[in-house]
Amino acid sequence: MKDILTAPWMVEMIRTATNMYDHGWDERNGGNISLLLDEAEVKDYLNTDTVLRVLPTGFEAPALEGRYFLVTGTGKYFKNVQYAPEVNLGLVRLAEQGTKAELLWGYEDGGKFTSEFPAHMMSHVARLAVNPENRVVMHCHPANLLAMTFVHDLDERAFTRTLWQMCTECIVVFPDGVNVLPWMLCGTNEIGEATAKKMETARLVVWAQHGIYGAGKDLDETFGLIETAEKAAQIYMKIAHLPRVNTITDEQMHLLEARFGVKGRDGYLD
CB neighbours of 177 closer than 8 A, spacing ≥ 6? Predict the structure, then answer.
């Protein structure tokens, strides 16, 4: 077997977790990532017949039975992933209608997957139904998006339009907009179900007074999606208390749609 730490997807997971911590998005044990892998990507690096432990998930996800996920661990610090990936990450395969997770590698200190595992898996189901290429779910706590939920209307259209107006690239990067959930208790099936429902119509879901969920085809794209929204929120927080003399108009955003071949979410532009 090849060294699993040299697998391209492992290298990128470690790099991404480190970068997220360096951006200040994942303080202490805040945040989590899950990456969907095909068996063909995994089999050269570990024996998929060897199950180290079986972990109950507490929910059902029949659509994900037999699927493999590399997932950050509960209570783990992103800053430590680069130093001890075998402790801070785990590779699991869902079994028994998604009610069990078979641990194939990682969590060597006896740990388990993130407490937000339900929200991740339910979001994977929702995004795969929309776009089979969506393989990443990422949750973090970017300061400006978090701050914005304290001072901005949480109406999804209004929230999206504000972000679109902050940077020319925003409507190009996330034309599907941003969905928003009011504050809910984290780590529960209820917030997982609510997040998954929101993921049916957008790849970004803001948890008010908590953070954001992003989904995409790979780690790079998903990181960039959140990064762009956070930059827009940063600009908004710098100018929210000032009179706005200029803005990006709806007419200009329609020009961006035509130029870049995207379509803003229906009803979000005048």
Answer: 156, 157, 160, 164, 202, 204, 264, 265, 268
Contact by Cβ (8 Å): 159, 178: yes
Q: CB within 8 A of 99, min separation 6: which ones? A: 56, 57, 58, 59, 60
CB 31 within 8 A of CB 51: no
Helices 219-239, 143-151: crossing angle, 10 deg rounding: 50
Amino acid code (one letter) for 28: R
Residue 53: count other Cβ atoms within 10 Å of its Cβ: 13
Which residues are identified as catalytic? 116
Dihedral of the alpha carbons of 72, 78, 83, 85, in degrees to the nearest 10: 10
Query: What are the pLDDT digits (tens) for 139-198?
Result: 999 999 999 999 999 999 999 999 999 999 999 999 999 999 999 999 899 999 999 999
In the chain, % of residues over pLDDT 70: 100
Range list of H helices, the chain: 8-22, 39-42, 85-88, 117-130, 143-151, 156-166, 170-173, 189-199, 219-239, 250-260
Q: Over the stretch 191-227, which tens digit does the pLDDT of each residue have?
A: 999 999 999 999 999 999 999 999 999 999 999 999 9
Structural domains for the chain: 1-114 (3.40.225.10), 116-270 (3.40.225.10)
Paired tokens of 251: 């007419």
How many C-beta atoms lie closer than 10 Å to residue 102's C-beta? 19
141 vs 24: CA distance, rounded Å: 8
Residue where the block lists tokens 């827009």? 232
